Amino acid sequence: MKTDIEIAQTSHGVPITDIAEKLNLSTDEVEQYGHLKAKIKTSVLNRLKDRPDGKLILVTSINPTNAGEGKSTVTIGLGDALNALGKQAVIALREPSLGPVMGTKGGATGGGYSQVMPMADINLHFTGDMHAITTANNTLSALIDNHIYQGNELQIDPRRVIWKRVLDINDRSLRQTTIGLGGLKQGVPREEQFEITVASEIMAVICLAKNLADLTSRLSNIIIGYTFQNEPITVGDLNAEGVLTLLLKDALKPNLVQTLYQTPAFIHGGPFGNIAHGCNSVVATKMALKLGDFVVTEAGFGADLGAEKFLDIKVPILEKAPDAIVIVATIRALKMHGGVPHDELTIENPEALKLGVANLEKHVQNMQKYGLPVIVAVNQFTSDTDKELALLTRLCEDLGAIVEITSSWSDGYQGSLALAEKVISIIEEDSSDFEAVYSFGMTIEEKAETIVKELYGGDGVFFTDKAKEQIEIFKKYGWDRLPICMAKTQFSLSDDPKKVGRPSEFTVVIRELVPKMGAGFIVAFTGDIMTMPSLPKEPAALKMSVDSNGSIKGLF
Amino acid sequence: MKTDIEIAQTSHGVPITDIAEKLNLSTDEVEQYGHLKAKIKTSVLNRLKDRPDGKLILVTSINPTNAGEGKSTVTIGLGDALNALGKQAVIALREPSLGPVMGTKGGATGGGYSQVMPMADINLHFTGDMHAITTANNTLSALIDNHIYQGNELQIDPRRVIWKRVLDINDRSLRQTTIGLGGLKQGVPREEQFEITVASEIMAVICLAKNLADLTSRLSNIIIGYTFQNEPITVGDLNAEGVLTLLLKDALKPNLVQTLYQTPAFIHGGPFGNIAHGCNSVVATKMALKLGDFVVTEAGFGADLGAEKFLDIKVPILEKAPDAIVIVATIRALKMHGGVPHDELTIENPEALKLGVANLEKHVQNMQKYGLPVIVAVNQFTSDTDKELALLTRLCEDLGAIVEITSSWSDGYQGSLALAEKVISIIEEDSSDFEAVYSFGMTIEEKAETIVKELYGGDGVFFTDKAKEQIEIFKKYGWDRLPICMAKTQFSLSDDPKKVGRPSEFTVVIRELVPKMGAGFIVAFTGDIMTMPSLPKEPAALKMSVDSNGSIKGLF
């Protein structure tokens, strides 16, 4: 088997203008970035506003494990298979963050024969969206500190600045810093914690804004800190929403690329799945829905985080609910949920598989609570045995779930044809009857309780004193009418990453709330959420190179 | 008169593919970035390696003042005029840094009717070169701190790390920071000074590398700090040159745009003019020389910094010396050199003008020392009187210099036709007989003395004890055989910014030397050189906006 970068580098693709033409986009609407990438102008949404939306398929998964689930691979394989079956299929994915690419994760463009291309470009600078967000975020930081330095008319308390600088780099050393040192001419000293770019509220804003005017309005609402009297200060108070919009105007335009089989794919936006909502942009998904008959998209982490936020935060803005949910599971990961350690996953173990299926079961039931039809996609690995595959299929049927095996990583679109046929058939039944699990009008406590009890399977929520105080303040400003964005470990349905499978009898502790008024949600922090990753002892970066002919090595 | 952004937004330009076609570039060699920008593959240099170079015109200036000289405007106007006279003219400029655009400076794309376009794009993210350099620079920083954290096999002394993080933002608060705080899991505490991206050695490396292999080799040579035993550590010691090359492979490709009159213009690279060499990239200039018959390029600051470094640092790598030098002067700026305060510049003052011409005289003589023919371009302002213009013309003729008035800001290419004719005529005389003022084999002391005595007009150099110690160390490693890059104020021929005109009887103090082994020069620091600018009380950024139709305001 070739490596991902080898497969990617042997495939040349067709000019992106051909892909755009297939989608009936006019030359004027397409801004090429090299031969294989393009930004599509948002004016397309106006032109097609009366065209009915295509069908929407949301790909999500069980709680992720170190064994890997291959959600992107399944998403791409399913799109390719729908395309091969004669449907106008369009894929909508998040764009990768450079930090993890340089660390251990490698790229985020699928794998094997289910990839979007150009793989190296997408994983590196792509069309500059991440850099635009980094720049806008840090320009705002410079404007805040400059305001404080130049007389501080707004009376911003340097100890209460919550807006943090970001870099798209895994950089442990910037987690806790002091800035503004050096005396009278070098600024006002204060503490600063750098985060990774995808954790910036600007990333969430880009992904939830409907258009340029909405972008400006959301940016204006962002709270950057509090005065000495503890009153909130917004970007609008600083008059900075104009320059931020200017810096972000191109980043708002969706990026069009293609799969190895020339299926059109939008790769746009990539907010964190814990402190943000973890889905690609509303603008890109909407554009895909206007241009395609079947849109396959993906949400971050497991269905408890990614799908929940897609359905409760993104859908109200997108004004379109999924027509089907695909939950990706692997036998390896289910065995981990059944208690098998990482180095024994290739050993056949039906008992552990049976135990681990409890995790899948809960996610299937959760999606059904939203009134959505569910298909389980078993992403096949070479180590899976026939006995295990047969067992898992039967267990899924026992749950009342439709199930299909997929092997797009090794077999390309052909590995997902059966899955695609089942997806088409379930969508033709038109059984989607979407209903949110909570309403925005509920109190913060009620919304959090609903998520924890209904979806996580917990007993309830414990709010720390700090969180309780914050809820009172938020009520005063009317912020309690926003959806809740749970910042929780992705590894468990509970807030304890070690509790695999389907834990019960647990209480989720919410220790702090952060208002994200630009994004339009309240982040509820449970446990320790890391917003600046770090590099391992042997970073992937140090294996990467490019020779004098431009041939790339070590990117995977 | 319209503002620059108004003029820029009313001009639509032709597709960049048309400009590329005019230069006989193949479709395959052109990577479009939207309709009006493109990166050109460096393979063009191989294809045309046997074609003779075009003629090279270097535009420089007197010592800059707050009154402004308009060097870019003259460069663009001259290119347009050469084009209008039927020459295949190509312009090669530096690309702007976003930090100053957001501060007070505004854009760096010319002005009035002498502009390159698309103005807003070039001043903002352009094709992402600055962001790629920021990312590569800071990825290297993260790798250094991670190495120290993960056992520090190379024994890097955290107090001796000289590699600094950068942002392309004017951010006073990051000038002096402490990082790695927060305890055992958050890195190793140390001091850090952020600089602006254009001050990164990577920017200088991009601008001096001949090709991808040379880029890797130069990156590998960069010194990032010293061990506890004070031995130098390079990027190569960290094995990081591969990933840095990967991150920079597209940034090495020159960017092609057009002027308002469709003259092709390469805008590529923008290193600082004090701690670096202040010229656009070797790759872009060489490409322009292979594609054009007349290439007009520019060097940073006045001729004492920009032109000197162009001739002593860039020319040996470019393997091509200028065929003519254009020194830009304005009556306003010369009056400032004659002692007139900023608010009295619009008052006619022939006496001050006469005094101020001494500054111009020195630069003319300096360029003649290199054996190069010189033309003085008087960039006309509306406040200039006929009497002053006639006087300046006569004074230049007294100096034995060819002189011409240019008015491209208000008149476009027509304002530079007379200048262009004189440039053509001087080039046809073929009188360029280039000779460097110093040889690399001289000692550091001799090289610095030569620059100060021959070009600045000073009495000599005073080396601090620290600098003397460094010279001994540099000799040990053989670094003393490199050219000197003087980091000096741009406002005076001396190292004292207050000494306008043509100062004499001064000694330049060199307080510190820094080896830039990737760029291939030794920076000699004189006085205080600011490598992280700051925002003013009312930043230009806060006046910028973009409306829902994408129309931009406040960018100038």
TrEMBL record, chains A, B:
Q: Which domain of life is it from?
A: Bacteria
- Residues at which ATP binds: 65-72
Pathway assigned in UniProt: One-carbon metabolism; tetrahydrofolate interconversion
PROSITE patterns assigned: FTHFS_2 (PS00722)
Q: Which reaction does it catalyse?
A: (6S)-5,6,7,8-tetrahydrofolate + formate + ATP = (6R)-10-formyltetrahydrofolate + ADP + phosphate
Query: GO MF terms on file?
Result: ATP binding; formate-tetrahydrofolate ligase activity
Q: Tell me, what's a Pfam family for it? A: FTHFS
GO biological-process terms attached to the record: tetrahydrofolate interconversion
The regions listed as transmembrane in this protein's record are none
Q: Which CDD domains match?
A: FTHFS (cd00477)
The record, for InterPro entries, names: Formate_THF_ligase (IPR000559), Formate_THF_ligase_CS (IPR020628), P-loop_NTPase (IPR027417)
**What's in the keyword line of the UniProt record?**
ATP-binding, Ligase, Nucleotide-binding, One-carbon metabolism
EC number of the protein? 6.3.4.3
**Entry's family note:** Belongs to the formate--tetrahydrofolate ligase family.
- Know the name of this protein? Formate--tetrahydrofolate ligase
> Origin organism of this chain?
Vagococcus allomyrinae
Q: Which gene encodes it?
A: fhs
